Amino acid sequence: MSKKVLLMTQNFYPVIGSSGNRMKNIYQLLNENGIDADVLTTEPAYPNKNMYKDSEFWDEESLNEEKHKIIRVPIKNNRFQNHILSRLFFYLEIMYRFLLELWKLRKNGYDYILVSTPPIFIVFSAFIGKYVLKSKLILEVRDLWPDSLIGVKTFHNKPIIKIFRYLEKKMYRKADSIVINSIGFYDHIKVKLKEDKPITYMPNGPRQYEITEEKPGTKEFRVVYTGNLGLAQDIDHLKQVANLLHAEGIRFDVIGYGVRTEEFVNYLAENNLNTVHVHKPTTRKKSLELIKNSNVAVAFLNDEEVFSTVLPGKIIDYMTCKTPIIAGVKGTAADMITENETGFTFDQADVEGIVAKIVDLKNDKVTEQQLGENGIRTVKEYFLWENNIKKLIDIIK
User: Fold this and answer.
1) Which keywords are on file for this protein (predicted)?
2) Phi/psi of residue 230, each to 5°?
3) Are the beta carbons of 223 and 299 closer than 8 angstroms?
4) Angle at 211 between CA 205 and CA 212, to 5 degrees
5) CATH for 4-202, among 3.40.50.2000, 3.30.465.10, 3.40.50.300, 3.90.960.10?
6) What is the pLDDT of residues 17-73, one digit of tens each?
7) Rounded to an integer, what distance in angstroms lies between the CA atom of residue 122 and that of residue 350?
8) Residue 95 CB neighbours (<10 A)
9) CATH 3.40.50.2000 boundaries in the chain
10) Do the beta carbons of residue 178 and residue 197 sit within 8 Å?
11) Ramachandran quadrant class, 38 (left: phi over 0; alpha: psi -120 to 50; beta: rest)
12) Least CB-packed of 139, 158, 169, 242 within 10 Å?
């Protein structure tokens, strides 16, 4: 008899971004490997609910047909505002609606609940669900909370932060197993545990069919940035990169979404940076296609210490597409890029150094090609989902 698992997550196909893609891959690969997995999620709404009215985002027919296994709860308060109270009510509504669904699912015989955090409020509903469903619980950590909340400087209430830190410890200690997507999280979580508990590193990555084996030739040298333009991504330095690339006459493509997208677009217009092309949020397939057709990819993270533990999904996507990386990052992400020779890393403030290295690569096709080959080798060795899912299967079986 196969094991049954309920995945609980805010973001799931067709939601764009690394979290939705991660949970989609976990769901598909568990089912392909003899584990009966279902999903409890919200209706797609990030970053904009209306965009999912476009059929282009619903591009996997097999998932569209599995409505009996993918339970989507409607959320009335779906505005992704930065105001702390608005977000609090949003997460509380998700928690409430998930609890209602868990009560309906109590006779389904789930052996495990796998819950993805952040947000932490979904984890609270999963802890209650653990007893309602009589299941074990796997906590899947995609971001360190509340440190990431503090890192983006949106919340500084010390008494409430103290409560959040207490809840964080309880969250780790109550889980039966913990899965992390960045090795940088390991020490942070380990010191908060009272007893020895398995912490399994299962990074984001591509599926085998997504890997670029042959990179197409490009007539024009192109630089690309994809992903969130939010509070963690250091948009101010990205603006400066756009300015300097324009001065060099280098095309810069940006697929961006998030709370600072409008600010970035307005900056380009005000400064007449017409070599910078901003694309609307699109499917993962089209995003990978744009990266594949670019010569260099850039990434930035906020300089706060918490972000030194993060390995952004976009960096793995860049390697998947055989595209060299120039990044203003430190810690885990910088170590991965440097040790595997998939690109070059700089201090976030060294914008001139970043652009100078891009110009160097424009004139050095041999190095550009070698960095791309190193990226593919690294992805195949460490980041393929078909290999890494075995770690989660071992926990469940």
Assistant:
1) Membrane, Transmembrane, Transmembrane helix
2) -115, -155
3) no
4) 140
5) 3.40.50.2000
6) 899 999 999 999 999 999 999 999 999 988 888 899 999 999 999 999 998 999 999
7) 39
8) 18
9) 4-202, 208-382
10) yes
11) beta
12) 158
pTM for this prediction: 0.93
Kindly state the tokens that stand for 313: 């999904």
Domain 208-382 belongs in CATH node 1.25.40.10: no
What gap in Å lies between CA 383 and CA 202, rounded to an integer? 8
Helix, strand, coil distribution of the chain in percent, nearest 5: 50, 15, 35
Q: Are 4 and 36 in contact (CB under 8 A)?
A: yes
Q: E strands, 174-329, where?
A: 177-180, 199-201, 222-228, 251-257, 276-279, 296-300, 325-328
Q: What are the angstrom distances between the C-alpha of 234 and each of 88, 228, 369? A: 24, 10, 28
